[in-house]
Specification:
The chain has 3 helices and 14 strands. It is mostly beta strands. A hairpin with a 2-residue loop joins β12 (245-256) and β13 (259-268). The radius of gyration is 20 Å and the shape is globular.
Length: 280
């Protein structure tokens, strides 16, 4: 089981992905009444969070390498590398009373047909007071978003070139105060040179419903296995709706049998973040 706390990495992400108010007011119509524009910004933040120990320790880099059962949501092609039954759980505390948790279980299929995974996540924004226009009659409310994911990863058959792996996932999200969303992810990883893998992924894509858009991300990454003790990785991603760019670089060193050290750096247009994780 993998357990991560990624407060440092997720503080900026939580602030950017927290529920947003409806769109602003457009210019007044000919009748003199301002019309509210629909909110086209990405929603369902719980779809774009998660990831396992490798993603946390390498600041988001290394998606092409796979991340155990956690790959179901972050890069389903990585499930092809899961050799036995696996469970991954995360619990994250970005701050300001916000909490995020997820659980994913993965199971290899017989006959080398790949690995399937089923998981769920919840994004708790904490409680807040609701008052009337006079500031009286306070009641307490709590917003909790949730998501489910079903994913399948498999080694590429001969008709796909027989090189690398592919993964697909279907996701559903329920967001407080918004409509339910349905999204999908498609990812692939291919060995382009000795010890070098290229990964491509389209994550959390889907139609806009009621003005709400999934947090679709297009990502490309390279990973280099430098001998038996060192992995180097670089990922670049762009939000399709948000148009936000991010680049992550990371390294994983095998210090001894069963002992790994990971470190990474992530640049975003609005915030930088450092991440490091050591584990046995």
């Amino acid at each position: 089981m993998t357990w991560t706390r990624r407060a440092a990495l997720l503080a900026a992400a939580a602030a950017a992905a927290a529920p947003l108010p409806p769109g602003g007011l457009a210019a007044p119509s000919p009748g003199g009444v301002a019309e509210r524009e629909p909110d086209r910004r990405p929603r369902a933040a719980c779809l774009s969070l998660g990831g396992g120990a490798r993603a946390a320790g390498m600041a988001g880099a290394g998606g092409v390498l796979g991340d155990g059962a956690s790959s179901a949501a972050s890069d389903p092609a990585g499930l092809a590398a899961v050799a036995g039954p696996a469970v991954a759980a995360t619990h994250e505390l970005p701050g300001a009373g916000i909490r995020y948790g997820s659980v994913v279980a993965a199971l290899p299929l017989p006959g080398g047909a790949g690995t399937i995974a089923l998981g769920g996540a919840a994004y708790d924004f904490g409680s807040y007071a609701i008052r009337d226009e006079n500031g009286a009659g306070a009641t307490t409310a709590r917003d909790v978003d949730s998501a489910l994911v079903l994913a399948w990863g498999f080694a590429n058959p001969a008709w796909l070139g027989g090189n690398g792996r592919t993964g697909i996932a279907v996701e559903g999200a329920r967001e407080t105060g918004s409509r339910d969303l349905l999204a999908y992810s498609v990812a692939g990883a291919y060995e382009v040179a000795a010890g070098v893998e290229l990964g491509l992924a389209l994550l959390h894509a889907g139609p806009a419903l009621g003005g709400c858009t999934p947090p679709t991300v297009a990502r490309a990454g390279l990973a280099w296995t430098a001998g038996s003790r060192l992995l180097l990785a670089c990922d670049a991603e762009a939000g399709v709706a948000s148009r936000a760019l991010a680049v992550s670089v990371g390294a994983e060193a095998r210090l001894a049998a069963g002992l790994l050290a990971r470190a990474g750096w992530r640049w975003r247009e609005r915030a930088d973040g450092l991440g490091a994780l050591g584990g046995a």
